[in-house]
Amino acid sequence: MLDLSRARDRMVKIHVARRGIRNREVLQAMREVPREAFVAPGFEEFAYEDGPLPIADGQTISQPYIVALMIEMAEAKAGDHVLEVGTGSGYAAAVMSRIVEQVYTIERHPGLAETAKQRFEKLGYDNIEVRTGDGTNGWPEAAPFDAIVVAASAPGAPLALQEQLDVGGILVIPVGDDLDSQRLLKVTRTGASTYSEEDFGGVRFVPLIGEQGWPEGGKPAELDRPLRHPQPVSLPDMIAMAAEPLPDFDDQAFGESFDRFADRRVVLLGEASHGTSEFYKARAAITRRLVERHGFTIVAVEADWPDAAAIDRYVRHRKRLAGATAPFQRFPVWMWRNTDVAAFTDWMRNHNEKLQPPRQAGFYGLDIYNMSGSIAAVLDYLDRVDPRSAKIARERYGCLTPWQNEPSTYGRAVLTAGYRKCEQAVLQQCRDLLAKHLEYAQSDGADFLDASQNARLIAAAERYYRIMYYGGAESWNLRDSHMFETLEHLLDAGGPNSKAIVWAHNSHIGDARYTEMGVVRDELNIGQLCRERFGNQAALIGMGTHSGTVAAATEWDGEMEVKQVLASRGDSYEWLCHECRVPRFLLDLGRDEALRERLLERRLERFIGVIYRPETELRSHYADASLPQQFDAFVWFDKTSAVTPLGPQHARAGVPDTYPFGL
Ligand code: SAM
User: Fold this and answer.
1) What per-residue confidence (pLDDT) applies to 547?
2) What's the CA-to-centroid distance between 194 and ligand 1, angstroms?
3) Which of 132, 253, 358, 362 has the fewest C-beta atoms lying within 10 Å of its C-beta?
4) What pLDDT, on the 0 to 100 scale, is given for residue 217?
């Protein structure tokens, strides 16, 4: 037996309330009316899906959201007398009947009118009168009406209907002479012969056929294809319809919405800035779900490897290394030392507590910027497992010592001032360490993975800083290739069934081939490399926002500031998402082919990193992209807020040194 009342509650919550319907009476009425009683036999189990369903005479029962929107627009309330034109299944009339005193509804198909009448009787809804006929002439004997709702599209608002409105009454009607595109109008009678009009956006309804509508067999009749359910036509409306509203982060339904990606080997979660709390919270909620329910054990983030390794020890209840300094001390500190990351790592620690090491979830860094931290980690490791080799390693890495604190100057010194290049030394050290895999890994596999990754990182970073001097795509590509290889090493170390989640900026995660980065600058990224390597076993999920605040600096190494994010530009993807007026949602870009096609054409997308300069926003933060090719899905938060950096006030009572962040 289907639990339809639960499904009904869910429909109201997810498909109606979260899309912005606020009227409590409308929401309550929709919770009450059994929609399954209005669909064709055999379709009951689909009655609460977010879409149209067939009824008799080739007609459809309207989507729940459209029904709710029209009743809300009509401002239907207790005591009202309401006329509906286009009874169809009778569902909308039934919903209205739970709110108002009396509903009159007209349907041109006698069969539909009769079935609707029987449904009302069966349900005991005795305040609905049904009539067969042409609703464009209204129902003069019952006029005036407080509201008239027309469920089919007309060339204009029929005069008869306007005249049958009481003063103050509202007519809601889709109007337009294109079968594919009409406007949803709210016409209010403001006086004996005066009316005002408001436009609620693009929709697509079946035609209203009648004396003051379209003639049967005339112009619209040739358009009279199988009658369709009203559909949105403007791009933001199409997005609104495809958007799956998201609940609070702590609501289990948030993570559940991403279960469709649970069978992938790698799920990559992007962000449109490095300083937005919602992006961190969303990634944490999705990750919790994938780890807890779907066997993901690798959380690999756009952070430096040695710093993330300290967090990893914490979340896996491993002893802190003697003499280890607190991680993430370098610019941009707030990117990882913030309350959202701290909460997430605490969750990981709790989750891991009851598990054996192979089943624990690990926290890893993909980035290459903390070269000195990696050098210290390799030396520390060798000091413990192989002091003789440690001595050699110390000499080799000594070559980089002058540049350790300012590695960006290394490239220039080597290339222009004839300083010794350290390439051979660091490569040899990496090879030597990897060659001792069997010997070293015996004592502790996790420690060996950490040390070998640090040695690889030093080799990559040496090259990175050398080629960085020239600028251009090569250093970016080296960094992202290193990130990808690190991810591959982690997956290999976890075995053939290992699954990973990646947290990084949209610019790393969205397939670079479909953005300005790849098209104009020849840059690749980890998202692209994952698609090339894992095909549809990789899910690329971007995130975006319209406005709010963000934690960012004005220049590199500058102080963190909480900055106002400018409203998104009218020619951007963000603007389309904003215009659809759903405050937070998941847009699955693989589900709606028509929408995907319309979104394909490249337009601007906003990228905020650790620096944000609103004054030069177009130049410094917008780039061209084709969203449905760049990502498999897009997560939207219309208004967002800056992350909260960890400060002394976050030190936990009774714990002098709040490992792992060392506050
Ligand atoms: N409100 C309905 C529901 O909840 O199921 C859906 C209505 S359906 C989208 C539009 C209906 O308008 C069709 O059943 C169609 O036959 C009817 N219709 C079209 N022109 C009409 C007219 N002039 N008078 C009455 N009904 C009309």
Assistant:
1) 97
2) 27
3) 358
4) 64
Instruction: Check residue 127 and give its pLDDT.
Output: 98
Helices (H), 386-442: 387-398, 408-416, 423-435, 437-441
Rounded to 5 degrees, what are φ and ψ at 567? -55, 145
Q: Is the same domain home to 523 and 602? A: yes
Is residue 151 within 6 Å of ligand 1 at its C-beta? yes
Q: Is residue 220 in contact with ligand 1, taking CB distance under 6 Å?
A: no
User: Residue 62 catalytic?
Assistant: yes
The predicted pLDDT at position 485 comes to 96
Find the catalytic residue in 62, 257, 372, 452: 62
User: Is 650 part of a structural domain of the chain?
Assistant: no
Ligand 1 mean position to 200 CA, how many Å? 20
- Which atom of ligand 1 is the closest one to the Cα of 86? 12
- Together in a domain, 33 and 124: yes
Identity of residue 424? Q
Distance between Cα 581 and ligand 1 center (Å): 27
Give me the residues paired with residue 64 across strands. none
Query: Between the CA of residue 507 and those of 400, 471, 657, what are the distances in Å?
Result: 30, 18, 35
Output the residue whose Cα is nearest ligand 1's atom 20.
208
Is 655 within a domain?
Answer: no
Query: For helices 387-398 and 371-385, what crossing angle results, to 10°?
Result: 160
Same domain, 180 and 253: no
**Residue 663 confidence (pLDDT):** 56
Any bridge partners for residue 625, and if so which? 515, 603
Task: Name the amino acid, one letter, at 183.
Answer: R
Calculate how far, in angstroms, residue 237's C-alpha sits from the geometric centre of ligand 1: 22
Residue with tokens 């002058």: 402
Which tokens sit at 663?
């506050």
CB of 88 shorter than 6 A to ligand 1: yes
The C-alpha atoms of residue 105 and residue 95 are separated, in whole angstroms, by 12
Same domain, 485 and 547: yes
Q: Which residue stretches of the chain have pLDDT < 70?
A: 1-3, 52, 217-233, 651-659, 662-663
* Rounded distance between C-alpha atoms, residue 476 and residue 480, angstroms: 6
Establish whether residue 214 lines the binding site of ligand 1, counting it when its CB lies within 6 angstroms of any ligand atom: no
Domain presence at residue 222: yes
CA separation for the pair 408, 565 (Å, rounded)? 30
Among protein residues, the one whose CA lies closest to atom 8 of ligand 1: 88
Q: For residues 453 and 490, give the distance between their C-alpha atoms in angstroms, rounded to a whole number.
A: 9
Q: Where are the alpha helices (DSSP H) in 258-327?
A: 277-294, 305-315
Counting the structural domains of the chain, the total is 2
With contact defined as beta carbons under 8 Å apart, do 150 and 85 qualify?
Answer: yes
Q: Is the CB of 108 under 6 A from ligand 1?
A: yes
Ligand 1 near 85 CB (within 6 A): yes
pLDDT at 226: 31
* pLDDT tens by residue, 221-251: 333 333 333 444 688 988 988 999 999 999 9
Residue with tokens 């479909």: 514
The protein residue with its alpha carbon nearest to ligand 1, atom 19, reads 208
Q: Which two tokens mark 128?
A: 């609905």
Q: Is 224 in the pocket of ligand 1 (CB under 6 A)?
A: no
**Lookup: tokens for 19:** 């899309």
Q: What are the structure tokens assigned to 630, written together?
A: 């760049």
